[in-house]
Amino acid sequence: MGNASERIHQPKGALCPIIQLTDSELPLSSGAGWHIARFVDGTLQELVLLETFLPPRIVDAEKRANAGLAGILAWLRTAGSEVYLVMCSATELCEPVPLSGDAAAAGLARLARLMGEVTTPSAKADGFSGKPGYRQAWCPKAQSEPQDQEGRNVIARQ
Predict the structure, then answer these.
(1) Whether the Cβ atoms of residue 30 and residue 49 lie closer than 8 Å to each other
(2) How would you class 154 by CB atoms within 10 Å of its CB: exposed for 0-12, middle for 13-18, buried for 19 or more?
(3) Helix 61-79 to helix 104-119 angle, to the nearest 10 degrees?
(4) Which of 9-13, 36-40, 98-102, 145-149 has the lowest mean pLDDT?
(5) Which residue has the higher pLDDT, 100 or 126?
(6) How far apart are the first and last CA of the chain?
(7) Beta-sheet strands, E only, within 1-79
(8) Which stretch of DSSP H or E encloses residue 62?
(9) pTM, whole model, 2 decimals?
(10) DSSP reduced 3-state for 86
């Protein structure tokens, strides 16, 4: 099939680039959220939710985020294929950012920030993990400007 990078496109009117999941890849989707997507020869092989890497016994948010990030970096060293940070929606991988290859630096910086967000209760309370409208901010088929429960524009925060 080639490389996953060849599958990235931005449909007309979409808010962000996407990778459309094929019928054979759909069973790998576990729902909306930030994931690491691993591809082999352009085909999705694995989708791992970021929170999967967070150690449950560490209470301190910073230590937990650092441990989770260390776990992801160790996993990336053995992945041996094309890897992206993605926001997963039902049938597409939105906003793919490389975590492997020459363009990985920006993706790793974003990954570090997201690990801090998924471990910090205040970030979750501020609309960064599943409040109504958040998923729309990353879904390319959103029809209007998504807002959180307080009516603030979610896209403006990006």
Answers:
(1) yes
(2) buried
(3) 140
(4) 145-149
(5) 100
(6) 33
(7) 18-20, 33-40, 43-49
(8) helix 61-79
(9) 0.72
(10) strand
Q: What is the pLDDT of residue 61?
A: 85
- At 147, is the secondary structure helix, strand, or coil? strand
CA distances from 74 to 41, 50, 58, 68, 88 (A): 22, 14, 18, 10, 22
Could you tell me which residues come within 8 angstroms of residue 48 by beta carbon, excluding any fewer than 6 positions away? 35, 36, 38, 75
Per-chain mean pLDDT for the chain = 78
Please give the structure tokens belonging to residue 138: 């990353």
Copy the structure tokens of residue 12: 């007309």
Q: Which position has the token pair 């990336």?
A: 76
Confidence check: pLDDT of 129 > 60:
no
Alpha-carbon radius of gyration of the chain: 15
Length of the chain equals: 158
